[in-house]
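Reviewers asked in the last cycle whether our approach scales beyond single polypeptides. To address this, we selected a multi-component target totalling 710 residues and predicted its structure end to end. The input consisted of the following lines:
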Amino acid sequence: MATINLNHICKVEGHGSLFVEIKGSKLTRCELKVVEGARFFEGLVKGKRYDDVQEITSRICGICSCAHTVACLQAIENAMGIKVFEQTRRLRELLSIAERIRSHATHLYFLSLPDYLGYESALAMAKKHKKEVLRALSLMKLGNNMVQLIGGKEMHPFTSVVGGFTHVPDKKTADYLRKELRKALPEAIATARLFMKLKQPVFNAEMDFISLNPEKDAPLISGDIITLNGLKIKPDDYTNYIDEEVMPYSTGKFSKLKGKLFCVGAMARINNNYKNLSKNAKKLFEQAKLKLPLTNPFHNNFCQAVELVHWIEKGYALLNYDFKFEGLPKAHVKAGRGVSAVEAPRGILFHDYTINDKGFVEKCNIITPTAQNLRAIETNVKQLIEQMLRQKKSKDRIVLEVEKLIRAYDPCFSCSAHFLKVKWVKR
Amino acid sequence: MVKKTRAKAKAKKENKSKEHKPRVGIRSITGCAGCQLSIYFIEDVLLELLDKIDLIAAPMIKEKNEEDNYDILFVEGSVSSKEDLDNLLEWRKKTKFLIALGACATHGCMQSMKHVMNEKEVEDAIYKKFPSDNRLKSITSVPIHKHVKVDFYIPGCPPSKEEIVQVLKWLLQGRTLRVYDKAVCHECSLKENYCLLDQGIECLGPLMNGGCKALCPSFNHPCTGCRGLLDDANLESGKQVLKDKGFDPDMMMKRMTKYNSLQFLEFEKKPEERNVKEGSAKK
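The resulting structure, written as structure tokens, was:
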């Protein structure tokens, strides 16, 4: 069995491309490529002191820097046997929630929606659909504001350190954020209604879904790993279950769960944990008249919109707390290995560190959600093209739907997926 | 690095004709994409701002992107692969005014730490597991001014939204662009923060370029210099100050310079040598 090793996947958000070859009406080749300059994060943190690591690994990704921050800190704390206070867990959870709000809003409105409404970008959409664009901006602003007030900066938050926080929002800030969240709820509901109405192609993908089994107090940043098919594993065991392959045509690595196809992300979370959704979120989901478990990856967009509603309500409740700054956190160095799995906006993110007795990193392994999804995306793209070829759809139509499918997964190379170079070879 | 760029906002002046909006592009090479996100996160004035310019290329959020004739081009990321370099050289040819956006483009950021580490060891952490995998080969990251002429720098990891708006405004008005060139300590003491160094916490504020409103120290977090060393930073006396306060300056700098390892290396060399080298790089 191969151990998982997605060293390079941190670069996935850069440029991805798809190569499709069709002979007659048969698909003969379909390769999803990730080709990016390497940054060697796992190598860079080797030999770094435990309190310097977060600042480095946070830079793996701009839009999910909070998830990387929290995963990194928790893994190091696990390695050194540090227990954190409830307040710290709560603030980290809030950071993750805030990031989710801005990430989902950005993805839904700026990357996905233009395809459905027939525009080249959200900016081109602004003339006719100003309401939607303004709504997107207001949701993004809410998320950004929240990350900034808790984490210090909108991106790459720095107040969260090993053992706790260097700064804690005061009562006034918490109340302000609650007020903002309450104001944003109708916007989130409107978003869910909007995405509910979008017409999705009929498409079924057979695969397993992986998510965290949420613990009550901090569902985004702790818990065991569960699959829809009933597998339950501890985060530390991930290497025994997720296999990884290197494709000859891509620098991104592809993963499988014990040889089977799987995906992570909003759809997986809702499939596995529907019962935990908030009341409003459940109501919206019911209105969509979708059958659980969802198998059409296009619905990932709607799932994200439902999550928006859910997490805004959750964040509102979590902020009702008397936050207090209790001095700078201190940590005692201890050798060990620690793993942390958190739910980043796009799915499960693993950080795994081995720390030596002086507090320096000896080994590091990071697996990003997009790395886990690559295989599923490629397979789904193949199936979709075959299905559309059978239906004798035009080339332009197929390209559009394929792009929509890839974007629905919200891969961290969304940026590049919007720049998707579909090479079409017809023989 | 050219800090005191007295940029003349050429881009704007050449296109004074009334209907013509400046053609602006946002392009990225290897990095985390956070810097261009910072542009889209200018929520309050984004639409207004985009009304004043013609955003012709932004692959992250646009489907249709033009490849030619940029008046102003933002480039994020550091040069880390052959493709990066090819793209960058191509963009430079097609751009009147090129702005390096964010720490990767201005200083190299995290990925450039390889310069001060054992490169082979860093790469082995990845290659050893995939011995046959030569596709991962990259060139060691450098900031973009090592390869092309840069007209203006917006530092920071990520850069502040206000600063981006400010620079765009100045460009649109045809005004001279200004650079903040005082130490982080300057703004930190204006904010009346209790000095971290005096509390026994390692902080690189005295040597680092400010303009960030001393954000990190204000939240009890040491400055690690995401905006790079001051142009006229005096490493020797800086180290002495730190030593006097009871720190081990060499260890501290080795540990804490993450964003600007390359610049730091250059500063460690003799000043004369540095000037010669920097001067030639600027051409």
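The radius of gyration of chain B is 20 Å. We regard this as preliminary and will revisit it once experimental data from Aim 1 are available.
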